[in-house]
Design goal:
The chain has 7 helices and 10 strands. Helices cover 40% and strands 23% of the residues. A hairpin with a 2-residue loop joins strand 6 and strand 7.
C-alpha cells in the first residue's frame, strides 16, 4: 500500500491507497517541532485505530510547503516504514509543463492539485484550494500549468479580524440565515463567508475571460464544501484532490525510482 502526505502550513492531510482506492485518510495539525520519532508514533497510533499494520506500507510520497518538516518526515519514513520516500520537487516526473516565470516558486501542492484535476476533468480548468492561503490555479487545454492567484485564506483572515478588533469574538464558520444579520456573530459569519464567495466568483470570472468561458472549476481544501455550496462558479468539490494527485505522481515515478 502507498502512504501519501500533503504537508500544509496548518494541517497535514495523509492517506493510504491500495492501488487506485483511497482506503483511509486523516487530517492532523502541522507541528514544526515534532521529531521523526514523534511522527512515527503518531502514524502508528492512527494505523492501529484503523487496523493497519506499519509493514503494510510499501511506499511513501510526500508533498510539502513547510521545508523544516521534510527532514523529520523523510527520516520517519526510513525508520518506521523502511522505505525511501519520494518527495515532490525539482526533478520529479509530473507530466505537466509549468509556465511560471520561475517554476521553483510554485508550491508543490498546487502542482499536485493540477495533475489530479487535469487527469479527471481535462482542460481548461481552474482549481481553487481553500488552505492557509486561498490559491487559484489555471491549466490550459494542453495540460500546461499557466499560473494563478494567491489570496489570504479564510482561517487567517478570520483570526486577524479577531486579534485586531477588540470587541469581535472568534466565531464558528457556518452559513448564517441571511446576509443582513442582527447580531455580531452572525454578521461576522455573513461578511466572511459571503465575502469569500464573492472573491472566488470574481477571480474565477476574470480567469475564465483569459482561459476561455468553458473552463470548469473544481474546489478542494478544508472549507471547499462551505464556499462551494454558495458559489456560482465552482462546479465540483474534490476534498481529496491533493491525495489523488500524489498517487498519480507516485505511479508516474515508480518505475524510475525502482
Amino acid at each position: 500500500m502507498l502512504l501519501v502526505f500533503d504537508v500544509g502550513n496548518s494541517n497535514i492531510v495523509l492517506g493510504i491507497y491500495d492501488q487506485e482506492k483511497l482506503l483511509h485518510h486523516w487530517r492532523v495539525s502541522t507541528d514544526r517541532q515534532k521529531t521523526a520519532d514523534e511522527y512515527g508514533v503518531l502514524m502508528n497510533s492512527l494505523f492501529i485505530h484503523r487496523g493497519v499494520a506499519m509493514n503494510d506500507i510499501h511506499a511513501v510520497i510526500i508533498s510539502s510547503v513547510v521545508p523544516p518538516l521534510m527532514v523529520p518526515l523523510q527520516r520517519m519514513a526510513q525508520r518506521y516504514f523502511d522505505v525511501e520516500p519520494l518527495v515532490v520537487g525539482p526533478g520529479i516526473k509530473t507530466g505537466i509543463r509549468i509556465k511560471y516565470e520561475n517554476p521553483r516558486e510554485v508550491g508543490a501542492d498546487r502542482i499536485v492539485n493540477a495533475i489530479a484535476a487535469y487527469e479527471k476533468y481535462g482542460g481548461p480548468i481552474i482549481i481553487v484550494d481553500f488552505g492557509t492561503a486561498t490559491t487559484f490555479c489555471a491549466i490550459d487545454r494542453n495540460g500546461d500549468y499557466l499560473g494563478g492567484a494567491i489570496a489570504p485564506g479564510i482561517g487567517i483572515s478570520t483570526e486577524a479580524l479577531f486579534q485586531r478588533a477588540a470587541k469581535l469574538p472568534r466565531i464558528e464558520l457556518v452559513k448564517p440565515r441571511s446576509v443582513i444579520c442582527r447580531n455580531t456573530i452572525a454578521s461576522m459569519q455573513s461578511g466572511i463567508i459571503f465575502g469569500f464567495v464573492g472573491q472566488v466568483d470574481e477571480i474565477v470570472r476574470r480567469m475564465r475571460e483569459e482561459l476561455g468561458s468553458d473552463a470548469c472549476v473544481v474546489a478542494t481544501g478544508g472549507l471547499a464544501n462551505l464556499i462551494g455550496q454558495e458559489s456560482k462558479t465552482i462546479g465540483s468539490v474534490e476534498p481529496f484532490l491533493t491525495l489523488e494527485g500524489l498517487r498519480i505522481i507516485y505511479e508516474r515515478n515508480a518505475s524510475i525510482k525502482g
